[in-house]
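Quick look at the format.
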Amino acid sequence: MDGVTSMQTAAEEERSHSSHFLFKTSKFSQSSRKRWFRLRLDFSSFHFTVLQGNLVRILMLFHLPVTIFSSYQLTLGHHEATALSIAFAALSLIAFSIIIPILLIFRLFMNSTSKLYDETWTLLALGPLYNHYRHGSQLFACIFFATSLALGITIGCGQKSGIAQTIVILLIEVITALVTSIWLPWGHGASMGLISFLFCVARIVVAVLLVILTPTVSALRPLPRLRT
């Protein structure tokens, strides 16, 4: 106790002789500042990995609507849209709908199956692409992006012809159902085969109804008034 008291007294005397402690930068603050600066520049940290995984999840959720609106904006003429909006639509379609999904699929292709399922940081960064598929079927995410891209371009660019639009949607749904039935990317205990087949059949039925009802809806559309 005497030694601790003498050390505290010596520290207080040194502090009073040099300057007040409120106006003096401590070593702890300097070390913490260096540590915080190091954390800000470390792009391979745990938090950046979680952020990357959340961005991948957001891309998967909004890939279809971004593709639809970008494609539709590109079909508009210069009289209906500005050059800046068309440029942003082209940049969005190329970057978010094509380039980034290709890079993500390439990263999945370059990593081994054991690393994708065993390494925590890789699972957090790329897990939304393959975490509900079985081992060896990680590249099934390319079917998701391809289907979303085809549907988005068809819906966005085919606004002038509803019949052609619905026929292409029907073909895309049939091809997706066949690929899903042949590939079967889900595990044996997941019980997703029957559910996936039922969803594919439901989408095909909806596409067939679109093909049937599109001429009727087009015929019932009110005609424009003639100018006198």
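Next, a different chain entirely:
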Amino acid sequence: MVGLVLFAGVGPGAGVRQAVGGHEGLSVLLPGNPLEGSRLFTGKGCLRCHAVHGVGGTTGPDLGRGLLNRPLLEIAGVMWNHSPGMEHVFQEKRIARPKFEPQEMASLLSFLYYLGSLDPPGDAAAGARLFRQKGCQTCHALAGKGGSVGPELDKYSRYASPLYLTAALWKRGQAMAETMQAQRVPRPTFEGNDIPDLLAFIRSAGGGTERVYVAPGNPKRGEELFTEKRCVECHSIRGHGGKVGPDLGMRLKGSLMRITGFMWNKGPKMWAKMAERGITVPSLTEVEMADLISYLYFFQFIDPPGDAGRGQLVYREKRCGTCHALRGVGEKVGPDLATVEKLDTPLAVITEMWNHASKMEEKMTEENVAWPVLKGGETADLIAHLLSMRGGPTQPAGAAKEPEPRRGRP
């Protein structure tokens, strides 16, 4: 993983237009290669202070531990909240604050989010218990022990990525279900870290030393596969698509392997619905599985549309008007946020907030204004309010009632 993080190939940054949230905004922000931002992470000097899975600096937290496994604007909010502390470190180390373009910010944030997609390494001892509990040995042999109904599992000991195993489970899912029913073996379900644990046990028992990896999934290609494999006919993505199955843009949560477990657990119901509708169960190669799961994972990266009404309350509570005017109302220490250039998209707003954080902290200190901390969905709401004042895209607040404060994690 670390080698991939530090030396991933670089492609063009994600195109940046429209608002964050909604189907069109989601498609625009899907990265082609989630690891593109690793170049920026090293090139902009982030690795001097932050480690990724133990590689890098120790001044800041290790970002490979899933600390930023949250939507894009919430990641930006965390960066904003810690900006004064980071600025002091920049000054102590005599490092200039790195500057970003919106496309670069999108690429960096998608990389930081991707770091939370990987489960901890599997536990072979836990996998051995699962292997027995799930009844795998009834049909499969491993290291010469077990049944002969299904294929031997030793060959999977060479695969470093669980995606090879999950692709095989999907391909043979229906046949396995029929065989288990005939053998009177309960069909197992997978939760949490079960799949990585099982693979860790298979690797340890199989005795192989060769390691075969799969490249990170391409969410943009996964979006195409979602239509090509006819998933969209049954499942919607935030309201766009079929209504037979659950809305996957709202239902799926967690890491890549938790999404894989969800697909396996719901397999029988999906196969039955496909049969009713005359749809053949789609086959998925390892690469296609990686692309599709990565696409589903990145739905969690896109914030729901912010609420401009709540954002207006955030603007007042955080005292933004102490330094900024908004359509001429407020102070003029900083620029008028409704007319200044380069603030027409959420990504543009958070990029400018980062780039000008040093000057803003300096002015806040002069004006005796506390650094505003943004929690939960407050970043999305605040940006929705700013864009509504500029005439940009937003989700309008209900006019009939006072906006309710949003609850969310800090």
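The beta strands are 51-52, 55-56, 141-142, 145-146, 236-237, 240-241, 325-326, 329-330.

See the schema section for token definitions.
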